[in-house]
Amino acid sequence: MKVLIIGCGIGGLRDEAARRGIPISYGKRLVSFDDTGDEVVASFEDGTSATGDLLIACDGVHSRTRSLLDPAAPGPRYSGLYSFGGIVRDAGVSGEPGVYNMVFGKRAFFGYTVSGSGDTWWFANLPRRLGDVPADWKPVLVEAFEGDANVSADIIRRSPVDLALPVYDLPPVPVWHKGRVLLTGDAAHATSPSSGQGASLAVEDAVVLARCLRESKGHREAFERFEAERRPRVERVVAYSRTISNSKAAGPVARVFRDLMLPMFLKKSASQESLAWMYRHQVSL
Q1: I need a labelling partner for 64 at 20 to 30 A (CA). Which of 26, 74, 133, 263 fits?
Q2: Entry's Gene3D superfamilies (predicted)?
């Protein structure tokens, strides 16, 4: 069976494909596909095409395949946050490697960890109107954090601010598959990064889909089994992650209630079992 995979950001999977001699093409932009019933022909912006028995799309939250598969499919929804990240050498911050420090600031959210080499890795979520992009983000971020009694503003002052991305997720997508075409990963169920589960869900999809294809009589049965197994979990994660993102984008009044409730929420969520459904989920091979 020849399978066309549109989009894949998982380095380990890419490396394993290369090791097995599976061809990988870069810089291709899908324009259309034609499902003949016996095969799928994918056409690209550069005039080339590729043919396979199945087309598996993992082309992200802005998936072209999703809109082709179902023109009525919902598009990405903006979370109200821009996301930033950076690495600072010799930041003068102490911390245990592998432990992330998370801070709900007065105006934005900040997280950082200190690597084994001593570098400080940080990220920030800033509530912002979509498209309101300044010429230079750094002073905007420093101003957002300098009123907080922590190291966030100092870390940002020492860091280049090169990465600024609006954060999106997806509402429930009604159509995951049709004929020989299937959506997976962020193309089917993009979650905001607040839950830390985006890449994990994509890997889980790959494992479950491989099993369904192996154990089913044909692709239709495999796709149906895949959706039935995955949809409840991924939609629960997306909803949970959106709740967290909303708390990061809280306005002045909502922040007061959030900060009052946060100690109780953290005490409840600190239990190893409270979020076991998400962080300790296992899939069978």
Answers
A1: 133
A2: FAD/NAD(P)-binding domain
Tokens 């190893």 correspond to 272
Q: Coil, strand or helix: which one is 246? A: helix
- CB 120, CB 87: distance < 8 Å: yes
Burial class (CB in 10 A: 0-12, 13-18, 19+), 9: middle
Check: CB of residue 166 under 8 Å from CB of residue 127: no
User: Which domain, by its residues, includes 56?
Assistant: 3-75+170-243
Residue 13, classed as helix, strand or coil, is helix
* 151-202 pLDDT, tens digit each: 999 999 999 998 899 999 999 999 999 999 999 999 999 999 988 899 999 9
Q: CATH number of the domain at 94, please.
A: 3.30.9.30
For the record, the structure tokens of 103 come out as 């801070």
Which is nearest to 51 in space by CA: 42, 38, 64, 62?
A: 42
